[in-house]
Amino acid sequence: MKVLFTGGISSGKSEEAEKLALSFSEPRVYLATSDIKDNETLKRIDRHRKRRGTLYETKEEPLYPERFFDKNCNVILIECLTHFYNNIFYYIPEKAEREKRFLEFLEEVKKFEGNLIMVTNEVGLGGVPANSLAREFADFSGWANRLIAQISDEVFFVISGLKLKIK
Amino acid sequence: MKVLFTGGISSGKSEEAEKLALSFSEPRVYLATSDIKDNETLKRIDRHRKRRGTLYETKEEPLYPERFFDKNCNVILIECLTHFYNNIFYYIPEKAEREKRFLEFLEEVKKFEGNLIMVTNEVGLGGVPANSLAREFADFSGWANRLIAQISDEVFFVISGLKLKIK
Amino acid sequence: MKVLFTGGISSGKSEEAEKLALSFSEPRVYLATSDIKDNETLKRIDRHRKRRGTLYETKEEPLYPERFFDKNCNVILIECLTHFYNNIFYYIPEKAEREKRFLEFLEEVKKFEGNLIMVTNEVGLGGVPANSLAREFADFSGWANRLIAQISDEVFFVISGLKLKIK
Description:
Three copies of one chain form a homotrimer.
Chain A: E1 2-7, H1 13-22, E2 28-32, H2 39-52, E3 57-60, E4 75-79, H3 81-91, H4 95-111, E5 116-121, H5 132-151, E6 154-159, E7 162-165
Parallel strand pairs in A: 1-5, 1-6, 2-3, 2-4, 4-5
Antiparallel strand pairs in A: 6-7
Helix pairs in contact in A: 3-5, 4-5
């Protein structure tokens, strides 16, 4: 089963995704994609880490999260796709290469037969960003989210901590 | 009964909240939290004021709105929580103190047995803001909205003037 | 029939609108409102153009789209209202005149008895913009979208390519 949780900043999407992940028995993998190591992000990561305690085995992979798609796990929680998209933007300069990387990942998501819970962000509902990189990112992110949603069995949009089933 | 209306800028959330408030008989309290006094905001306040006319008794309180939780009122409309969060950010410099102020308010919302209609904004669906204060605010706002939504009986997400019941 | 599709950047709203438009038989009009001619926009326009091929007759009109409301067409797809709002902001300096232009357009939408599919953007869910023009635009856009939604028979909010019927 593939489930996608999408929503805004601090909307409660991670909490909902984790709640679902914990309804599966162990072993569970928490697949962290964040690659940013500034203090603010470290604090956020630390908060997430405390919340999950020892309930998951944590794997960290910024650019090739699919290498931890292990069918011996009962459930894999990817937190989050937006960081993965960000890493694609950071490490890969060419548009075509960026799309290629994402499409390869998408293929592996499709093929994977285990339980996959994915968290992503809606980033395009605040108007057109003033700088062109942010515009490009909003486009990429919208495109990628749509492809993930298309192959997901269930999709939830989380607003103010309330989840709305949109697929 | 506690009802929360959330949505974006000029989405029609205030109009929907006021429509509901007017379905209660008088006395009604309009609890305004805005503390900003620039010309642009004054115009906006004036527009809201004209719309509500003499249908409400207006109370203004930027930081302790709960002091107007009067059980002799048939309905209290808080317009809006986002301004209240903003005031918390403006007047209280410490993160822990900010959260404390909000949690005290939340406690009073929980305890209040009258009819409370609250308006708030979704601010985190436009990507990660470029400045750290705005990021902090988006986090705080998302966290606070979730807690309010949790103790509300009904929650509506308003898009293009159409309300979607999400709780 | 009047149908409105709203959503964020690259949310899939155009694709959904086009899918619906193609369910009507020819002649179909694609009514393009974009007036911006920088390279980035030209690329985007080109992408849209390739996708629609010869399935539509294309009309371009930045400020008076209603002049192509032709009842001999089976369906008219307006892509998109947000560009139209943008053009109003660009060409008309006065607030009252801007609103007048929109309300005249709205009147023609109301009167038109053919099939009209409209695409617009939600731009106010990312917090209050830092510059006043963007704030004004968010207000205008929210106000205009609400009026269009009010006279539409069906309204869809598109998230991650999934359409949610909100009216």
